[in-house]
Design goal:
Elements: E1 2-4, H1 5-11, H2 18-28, E2 32-38, E3 45-56, E4 59-68, E5 76-81, E6 91-95, E7 110-112, E8 115-117, E9 120-121, H3 149-152, E10 157-162, H4 176-187, E11 207-211, E12 217-226, H5 235-243, H6 251-263, E13 268-271, E14 281-287, E15 293-295, E16 301-303, E17 309-312, E18 317-320, E19 324-325, E20 338-345, H7 347-357, H8 362-367, H9 375-390, E21 395-396, E22 400-403, E23 412-415, H10 416-423, H11 429-438, E24 442-445, E25 450-454, H12 467-478, H13 499-514, E26 518-519, E27 525-526, H14 528-533, H15 538-544, E28 558-559, H16 564-574, E29 581-598, E30 606-619, H17 626-644, E31 649-653, E32 663-673, E33 676-684, H18 686-692, E34 699-705, H19 706-709, E35 728-737, H20 742-750, E36 756-765, H21 768-771, E37 775-784, H22 793-811, E38 814-815
Parallel strand pairs: 11-14, 26-29
Antiparallel strand pairs: 1-10, 2-10, 3-4, 3-6, 4-5, 6-9, 7-8, 12-20, 12-21, 12-22, 13-20, 14-17, 15-16, 17-18, 18-19, 23-25, 24-25, 27-28, 29-30, 30-34, 31-32, 32-33, 33-34, 35-37, 35-38, 36-37
Helix pairs in contact: 1-4, 5-6, 6-9, 13-17
């Protein structure tokens, strides 16, 4: 966006150099990308007066003119001119010998068909002041002969190029009015702006306006203006528009564009006679009908949806609200009456329509930022006033103004203590309030140095909301460069590793390095297709998984509540290339329960529960027995937990009704640490195995809750000296009832003696003919050892006898010989 230095001067007493102003704006308000001078190419182009005009002796279409150029040494010069409209008495732009145009063309003395010509009388197009090339440019008769043209027409200006990204959150700065207000506050200048009143109006009922949705259009001003004479705009307006990057079209369109650049409020004018209906015209602000079409000013036809807001007459849309008007209702040279609108549209609605249609305009860029609804009236009055000035004798009907808005202008409480603490400068109350009042804020000082700050309407559309926004306003006007940087005194402390992070890193190291498993990473999403491939009901996902409101694709529409689903798919892909392998993944899962983190600091809703899980899959070859895979999986879990520092690890049979969907109902066990359930291990459910076509391979899986484990106190490991004395190993096999649990047997064996340092189960045997019905045989390696002496066989025999006696007494166990 470009700003005109001359326009800014009209709103404030600006006297500093443009270069200095650019630096000030960059350090206080927004980034200035460049500064360029315009009008400097008018050197040796002056205001002249044609004294005499006669025919060229050798060319019928040429004329010889004597021109008074005033201040030059030779006041009168002879110029050969071919324009049809050249006449004596006219004041015209004259390019003297030595003048150089912006396209590089230089004026030299020449002979044209035998007649001396010492300069050139210029057309608008030759001076790049317009598109008219049909004749010479005729100037105002009040201009002084000999004055430099740029100075006489006030063409000299400086253009300040603003980085649009730096004002994307400042809708008030998208016009010269808002920037001038900013400059006035920074430099303590008088802000020269007062709300303008409308010219005299003719009372009639030529216009009726209906707004169907006030949420999408909270203000709409409209007026009928008759008795128009459409034509070129004044030179000063055309020049300013061209400098600011907008092509002049005609006086009405140019006025709406100029007011948009000046005030920051987009406007639009419709040809009244093209709008449906006789007599009174009706304008309707409504949502578009589905697949309704409109041909806009860029000569492209767009298909609208029912969510797009349009301005319409009784039959068709005549503009896409806040973006662009219909070409069929545009103002041209034949227009005699217009309906002028100035409105405020919902920024989100404008942005959505603009993005969907891929149609952006100077109007949509401003509306989508969220404009002050009061700005619509300011711009409206300014535009009507300009029309009445530039086109005399116009007739203005009574104005329609429908407003239904309420800005959030409740006071924001700010502590002076917080202000000084955050900016690092001790400022007095008066200085702080003075800064805010310059910016248009209303300030009231309360007790305990707390101030109530009321936000002005032009900053209340989303820009200023919280105390920190107010503090930012104070410090940027005060000046960031005035704050002396001081390095804070900080104490270097060791980085604290959170318990969960620590256990995750350690678990990865143990599983990959110690246990030889391969780590995988999967997306945090699931979908029903994955479950259907495994023969699991899709309703399981709906009941147990968190659904995403805006998924990137339908295949990633549910957050995972288990790592095993993706691990099973990983295993199926790898069985094509590998016979046996083991994979693990550590990552977050999302449970459909209330979590500990709030969704929004203003609301009381909570995010779903999140847990850090460790899951693995162990795939055996075809020759592997199910018992082998089951025991291998159990051993991996036991080693992992022991290496993590958990000694009291127990395994229990689970009620098949509570077993997760992926696990075998009869060959899975619950894992407890310090009597707390932290996971499950076992084999894959037979139905899933058949669906995944694993060719009868044994497959074990486990799932551990690392978040829960991180909250369990780890018994600190105390290292002991290696035993100096030999151990005695006794192998005992017991016949017991199948219902007796492994953990109960281990517990009873340990109770026999403190000298028992190791118990390993090495065989499980079942045979009804040999052992009897409902019986099983468990064989153990029992390690007996003392740290202070060599044990005698008699001592080991006594411990063995006690073990047999205890098991016989409690479980009716018999020694299998």
């Amino acid at each position: 966006m470009y700003l005109s230095y001359n326009i800014l001067k009209e709103f404030c007493d600006l006297k500093i150099l443009p270069e200095k102003l650019a630096d000030i704006l960059t350090s206080h308000s927004f980034e200035v990308e460049s500064l360029k001078s315009v009008g400097k190419n008018f050197n040796k182009i002056v205001v002249g007066e044609i004294l005499k005009v006669k025919k060229h002796p050798s060319a019928d279409r040429l004329k010889v003119c004597v021109v008074n150029v005033g201040k030059q040494k030779k006041k009168e010069v002879q110029i050969v001119c071919g324009a049809r409209n050249v006449e004596a008495g006219q004041k015209v732009p004259v390019a003297l010998t030595g003048a150089v145009f912006s396209n590089g063309m230089e004026i030299k003395n020449a002979k044209i068909r035998g007649v001396d010509s010492n300069g050139m009388i210029c057309a608008e197009s030759e001076l790049f002041l317009g598109e008219n090339s049909n004749g010479i440019m005729v100037l105002d008769s009040k201009l002084k002969i000999g004055d430099n043209l740029a100075e006489a027409l006030k063409l000299k200006d400086y253009l300040i190029e603003v980085d649009n990204k730096s004002i994307t959150n400042r809708p008030d700065l998208w016009g010269h009015l808002g920037v001038a207000r900013e400059i006035s506050a920074i430099l303590s200048l008088r802000f020269k702006f007062s709300k303008q009143s409308l010219p005299a109006v003719v009372k009639n009922k030529k216009l009726n306006i209906k707004i169907n949705d006030y949420k999408l259009c909270n203000r709409y001003l409209g007026v009928v203006i008759d008795n128009l004479n459409i034509g070129p705009s004044p030179l000063w307006m055309k020049n300013r528009l061209q400098n600011l990057g907008i092509r002049p079209i005609n006086n009405i369109v140019d006025i709406t564009n100029y007011v948009m650049l000046e005030i920051g409020q987009p406007m639009h004018a419709f040809d009244k006679n093209k709008i449906a209906g006789d007599g009174q015209k009706t304008i309707i602000v409504r949502k578009a009908k589905d697949k309704e079409k409109i041909l806009v000013l860029d000569d492209k036809e767009y298909i609208l949806s029912k969510n797009d807001l349009v301005i319409a007459d009784k039959k068709n849309p005549i503009a896409i609200a806040g973006i662009m008007g219909d070409k069929n209702f545009s103002v041209n040279n034949g227009t005699k009456s217009i309906i002028l609108e100035s409105a405020n549209f919902n920024p989100l609605a404008v942005r959505k329509t603009s993005s969907r249609l891929r149609l952006r305009s100077e109007s949509s860029i401003r509306f989508e930022k969220g404009l002050d609804p009061n700005l619509a009236e300011i711009a409206f009055n300014r535009a009507v006033q300009l029309i009445s000035q530039i086109i005399p004798n116009v007739k203005i009907s009574n104005v329609f103004d429908n407003k239904n808005f309420k800005l959030n202008q409740k006071p924001i409480k700010v502590s002076i203590k917080d202000v000084n603490k955050k900016i690092g400068v001790q400022s007095k109350n008066k200085k702080i309030t003075a800064v805010l009042e310059k910016l248009g804020f209303k300030v009231k000082i309360n007790k305990n140095d707390v101030i109530d700050v009321k936000v002005p309407s032009w900053r209340a559309t989303g820009d200023i909301k919280i105390p920190e926004d107010i503090i930012e306003e104070i410090v940027r006007i005060y000046g960031y460069d005035k704050i002396i940087p001081v390095l804070p005194k900080t104490e270097l402390k060791p980085f604290i590793i959170l318990p969960e992070k620590k256990i995750v890193d350690l678990a990865k190291d143990i599983l990959s390095r110690n246990l030889g498993m391969v780590e995988v990473y999967n997306y945090s999403f699931n979908n029903k297709d994955q479950l259907e491939q495994l023969g699991i009901s899709a309703s399981w996902l709906v009941e147990n998984c968190v659904k995403l409101l805006n998924p990137s694709s339908e295949k990633q529409n549910l957050m995972r509540n288990s790592l095993l689903l993706n691990l099973l798919n990983n295993a199926r892909q790898n069985t094509r290339n590998f016979d046996c392998f083991s994979l693990f993944e550590i990552g977050s899962v999302y449970i459909k329960e209330k979590g500990e983190y709030k969704q929004d600091f203003l609301k009381q809703t909570f995010l779903p529960k999140q847990c850090k899980m460790a899951s693995g899959i162990i795939v055996g070859n075809k020759s592997s027995k199910k018992e082998d895979v089951f025991l291998k999986t159990k051993n991996i879990v036991r080693v992992l937990l022991n290496e993590l520092g958990f000694d009291k690890v127990e395994f229990f049979v689970i009620d098949f009704k509570t077993i997760p969907v992926f696990f075998h109902p009869a060959r899975s066990m619950e894992i407890k640490v310090n009597n707390k359930k932290i996971g499950i291990f076992g084999e894959v459910h037979p139905k899933i195995l058949s669906k995944m076509e694993f060719d009868k391979k044994g497959i074990g899986i486990f799932e551990l809750d690392l978040s829960l484990l991180s909250r369990i106190k780890i018994i600190e490991k105390k290292y002991k000296e290696l035993p100096k004395f030999p151990a005695i190993q006794r192998d005992l096999a017991f016949i017991l009832d199948k219902k007796i649990l492994y953990n109960e047997i281990i517990k009873e064996i340990k109770n026999a003696s403190d000298l028992i340092v190791g118990i390993d189960l090495f065989d499980i045997y079942e045979n009804e003919k040999i052992l009897g019905a409902d019986k099983k045989s468990l064989a153990f390696h029992i390690i007996i050892q003392s740290r202070d002496r060599t044990l005698k066989n008699e001592e080991a025999d006594k411990i063995q006898k006690d073990i047999i006696g205890n098991l016989s007494k409690k479980f009716k166990a018999k020694i299998r010989r």
